[in-house]
Amino acid sequence: MRRQSTICLTCFLLVCSFSILSSFSSALAQGYGQGETVIKWQYRPEEPIIQVGFGGEILPTGAQNLTQSIRIPGLENRIIPGEPVIPFRTARILIPLGEEIQEIKVLPGEKKNLGKILIEPGQDPLPISFTGNRTITPINETTYASMDPYPRDVYSVVGVQEKQGYKILFINLYPIMYIPKTKDTYYFGTFDLEVKTAPRETLNLGLFRGSEADRSHIEKLVDNPGEISAYDHDLAPTGTSPLLDGIYDYVIITSRALKDAPVPYNFTDLVHWKNSKGVASTIVAVEDIYATYPGADEQEKIRGFIRDAYLHNGITYVLLGGDSDGSTSGGEGWNNIVPARGLWAWDYETTPPRIPSDLYYACLDGNYDYNGNGIYGEPDDGPDGGEVDLMAEVYVGRAPVDSYAELSNFVRKTIAYESTASDPYLQEVLMVGEYLGFGGVSDWGGNCLDEIKDGSGASGYDTAGFPDDYQKSTLYDRDRVWDRSELVALIDGNVHTINHLGHANVGSAMKMSVEDAGRLKNDRYFFGYSQGCYAGSFDNRDPDSVYSPNDCILEHFVTEPHGAFAFVGNSRFGWGRRETTDGPSQRYHRQFWDAVFGEGIRNIGRALQDAKEENVGSIDRTTDGNVMRFCFYEINLLGDPETSFHQPFTASHNLEIVGMDLPRYTKPEKPVEARIVVKNRGIEDEEDVEVQLLEMGVVRDREIISHLPSGGSAEVRLTWSESVEGTYNLEAWVAPQDGEEFTEDNRHEKTVEIFGNRSLILLVDDDEGADYETYYERALTANGYAYAKVEEPPGESELLSFDCVIWLTGRDFTTALTGDDQRNLARYLDAGGSLFLSGQDIGYNSHASEFYRDYLQVEYVKDSTGVYVLDGVAGDPISDGMTLEISGGDGADSQYWPSEIIPITAYATGIFNYQNDGWGAVRVETGTYRIVYFAFGFEAINSSSDRDEVMRRVVSELTRPREELSDLSGEARRRKDASLEGVSPPAGARGSKEATGLGIDLSLEEMKMGLKEIDDIYPGFGEMGAGLGGEK
User: Fold this and answer.
1) Where would you tag: which of 94, 139, 952, 961 has the fewest CB atoms within 10 A of its CB?
2) Distance in angstroms (rounded) separating the CA atoms of residues 520 and 489
3) Which of 347, 366, 385 is the last residue of a domain?
4) Closest CA to 807 of 769, 776, 779, 845
5) Beta strands in 899-998, from DSSP E residues, in sequence order
6) Domain end: 188, 209, 224, which one?
7) Structure confidence at residue 774 as a pLDDT band (50, 70, 90)
8) What is the DSSP string of 488-542?
9) Is residue 891 part of a domain?
10) Which residue has the higher pLDDT, 805 or 679?
11) In which domain, by residue range, is 137 found?
């Protein structure tokens, strides 16, 4: 009988395969997603900090209160001149591929009263070159006399941006609600965000290219990385661009004259150097681009080529190899070799409103002139009249050369820096700060630069500074009088990095002139970043809209024989603010170094774009938002975007143990593997490096690293075991080399606790700060189980030390089971582990992952059943005779979204079902591993006696002796299938896919699985489903 029904299934599959394929193609045409999607994300800001503001001088006559500032750690401030300054958080929500937003809901949590506060008003942004009277921006009396909440809403939509084909919604959340007239101030401790999406009528891949590197970057960028599984890499574009054949990381765009320059250190030499480093590189001439690509002007044609090469040739970095002078430069060069695009300059440039910006070549969505008025980069010049593209597909820098000599200097210095991996000068960092005169703390550039030098949490948000490995020096007007001769001497003595905040112009910066830059003699080249006005005006235009006959000073720094190998600077005004260090240009400057040292982004072009994208939430149509846009456009890199910023090497010999990973718990006599990472921070390569694992000073294991190059790292794996219960201190030690003076970082210690020979349980508290773990702990204790608890997700080695892992996620629906967690759990299970997994939003967050399907072996049916009673299954070792209620009682009463699931393989068995609905829990037995998965929270079971009994049964099932089922063969699987025949799922326990119209409710994957199972009976039959669409 079983065989007969299988044959019928075979015929049925063959008959309907074409129909299903047709439905699948139609679904792609109508939208990549299927049905409505609801994205949920929760945010918990830290507690506010209230401080004294500017003082009484900003208040109306007769006011008695002093202003106060409100800061929330980690958040920037929303600053509108004259309005209350409040913190905000920009959420970045990834929208599934092929879907569009239908509805946005933001639900703030409990409102807490902070008392009566007169919140300080925002101050006007000012050009750093401003020399007018010091006048503090007064309060907006209309706003401060209002009973309306400020801001009016708890959130605002910034807009939707696309980066590398991934669609991201930007939303600003406002944790502070203020009633200005009464000064009543409130704080929201949580925000629950819901975004409802639905499939678009047509699937538009945009600039999605299916790159694994793109995917990894987006995962780190957004707040809901779980949605990234909706982006199918199989949809990546194919083909190649007309001017390139093959895959490249890096392309130089220049003129034919410079491409074939008959001088040493030309662009061909730079390409050879990049290729030798493993960076696949090539050169393309602008003349070939102009002849091949359509466009209204040269800039549009160049951008068209970059877009094509990004999609089809894989490029990440673009070096624009030529200057872009605004007019004839008096014989200094060849002028407009790679033309810049002029972008909208708000109210500060009107003849014409043009900021020379290479951002146009980095952000490739839309055409930057949607309304067709010839002014590029206006706020409504993006796709469909929305915001312009601010998220880069590629990272762009410019070699501002217009002669063979400048070309040779630029390339020589770039290669010299990139090949200098170890030199004492790399430690030298210089901060150059001048007098600004903006009042109070903002009188001095040095006060802002200190935030960059040392890192800072000033103005609410945190940014990393230069590590203590660097020798940090200052040249501040705040501290003493200095002149340009001092700075020239410091540069000539070789310095690695210069950060500058002070007055500047087209031909001057840091009190130096263009002539001073040409007379430098340093033979080690520096990287510079300046907030000064017009110092990076590479079209040579000055504040009076007059084009200079000479290149700007930052161009001279990078094209003269000495000086800098790269410089970041403003092509128009730099921007500060009165009475605060929180100026617009300062935000970008701080975020640049945070990208380098806080996020580990070493490529200078990528770091600069990261600094910009961190500030997207501040760009709107307010005065401050327009200035932030101005900065976004005008900050350019005059240098190679692929060049990596070097870390310093402090000594000839310096070994460091940078990591030691070992489990915190184990059993007697069970070997523990310690993974130890050793880094050579010294200048010299090292031979025969000995690494030891010690207990109480006694060497228990050792290994020799035969060769460890300068800057290199190596991992060794050493083992240890002990037979007696207790807590042990283990020490990793790398033996010092001859001449190694600093040895404090040669050791690393960790403790290991040995439990007795009983089932060892690990409780993973992954509920994002809630207290749900207490329900598990009480149930474990009531049953006498030994367990260890961790609040950080454990690594693979730690998991492998336990017989059973209990992992709870509570109400977390944003970070529950990250990709790393799933990979570690998969390895643990493959090694024979047992897992009890519980959480109402695990399926919501992870249902599209391989771990969910292939290990939990279930399908996610829906997010909330609305049913809070579950029945057990007769004869089941866990649920037999039990009925569970998951609301009220002495449980957590926390189940807002108890999920419905369905087993999808013969290894998975439903064990609790929602009354008159589908499955709520399964157990999985493969013969290799065991899983019990509750798609609701165990903590919500409303009776402690029921929780104790469920825990006893679950742990007993997960830790019982293994059956001889290490590998279920096809025959064994058929026997298990036969044992399930006649067992019907509970009402409602079915898949959620669209029916085919032929009475079948199967996905393509299920169809392929079915054909594979048939193949167990009829070898070769499964080949008929290999393509699901071929002639068979």
Assistant:
1) 961
2) 9
3) 366
4) 776
5) 900-903, 908-914, 919-925, 930-934
6) 224
7) very high
8) HHHHHT--SEEEEES-EETTEETTEEHHHHHT---SS-EEEEE--TTTT-TT-B-
9) yes
10) 805
11) 35-224
| E strand or H helix that includes residue 1008 | helix 1004-1017
Comparing CA positions, the residue from 76, 255, 254, 100 lying closest to residue 176 is 76
H or E segment and range at residue 747: strand 747-754
Cα 772 to Cα 230, 789, 808, 809, 920, distances in angstroms: 31, 13, 8, 9, 19
Query: Rounded mean pLDDT of 20-47?
Result: 61
Residue 333 has pLDDT above 60, yes or no: no
Residue with token string 């006649």: 982
Maximum distance among all alpha carbons in the chain?
98
69 close to 164: Cβ distance less than 8 angstroms: no
Using DSSP's 3-state secondary structure scheme, residue 462 falls into coil
Q: pLDDT for 241-276, tens place per residue?
A: 999 999 999 999 999 999 989 999 999 999 999 999
Gap between the Cα atoms of 798 and 674, Å rounded: 10
613 with 668, same domain? no
Residue type, 793: P
CA distance 838 to 902: 15
* 502 closest CA partner among 556, 565, 563, 576: 576
SS in 3 state form for 319-379? EEECCECCCCCCCCCCCECCCCEEECCCCCCCCCCCEEEHHHHCCCCCCCCCCCCCCECCC
Assess whether 856 and 914 both reside in one domain. yes
Given a contact cutoff of 8 angstroms between Cβ atoms, the answer to whether 879 and 912 are in contact is yes
Residue type, 578: R
Cα separation, 743 vs 715, whole angstroms: 19
Q: CATH code at 749? A: 2.60.40.10
pLDDT tens sequence across 865-896: 999 999 999 999 999 999 999 999 999 998 98
State the total domains in the chain.
Answer: 6
Q: How many CB atoms lie within 10 A of CB 3?
A: 9
**pLDDT of residue 988 exceeding 80:** no
- Claim to verify: residue 604 and residue 627 sit in the same structural domain: yes
Residue 55 covered by a domain: yes
Whole-number pLDDT of residue 622:
92
Contact (Cβ atoms closer than 8 angstroms) between residue 542 and residue 534 = yes
Average pLDDT over residues 545-568: 96
pLDDT at 652: 84
Q: Return the ∠ at Cα 812 (arms to 806 and 813), rounded to 5°.
A: 115
**How many Cβ atoms from other residues are within 10 Å of residue 882's Cβ?**
18
Do 352 and 429 reside in the same domain of the chain?
no
Do residue 199 and residue 304 come from a single domain?
no
Query: Could you give the CA distance from residue 309 to residue 322 in angstroms, rounded to a whole number?
Result: 19
| Angle ∠(658,659,665) on CA atoms, nearest 5 | 155
Least confident among 229-233, 355-359, 802-806? 229-233
Answer for the pair 448, 433: CB distance below 8 angstroms, yes or no: yes
Is residue 703 within 8 A of residue 718, CB to CB? The reply is: yes
452 and 589 Cβ atoms separated by less than 8 Å = yes
Give residue 590's identity as a one-letter amino acid code: R
Structure confidence by residue, pLDDT tens digits, 726-740: 899 999 999 999 988
User: Is there a single domain that holds both residue 818 and residue 950?
Assistant: yes
Q: Assess if residue 402 is contained within a domain.
A: no
Confidence of residue 118 (pLDDT cuts 50, 70, 90): very high
Rounded average pLDDT over 666-671: 85
pLDDT of residue 66: 73
Residues 275 and 296 in one domain: yes
Phi, psi of 407 (to 5 degrees): -60, -50
pLDDT of residue 176: 98
For residue 963, what pLDDT band results from cuts at 50, 70 and 90? low
* Cα–Cα dist 987/934, whole Å: 18
CATH code for the domain in which residue 601 is found: 3.40.50.1460
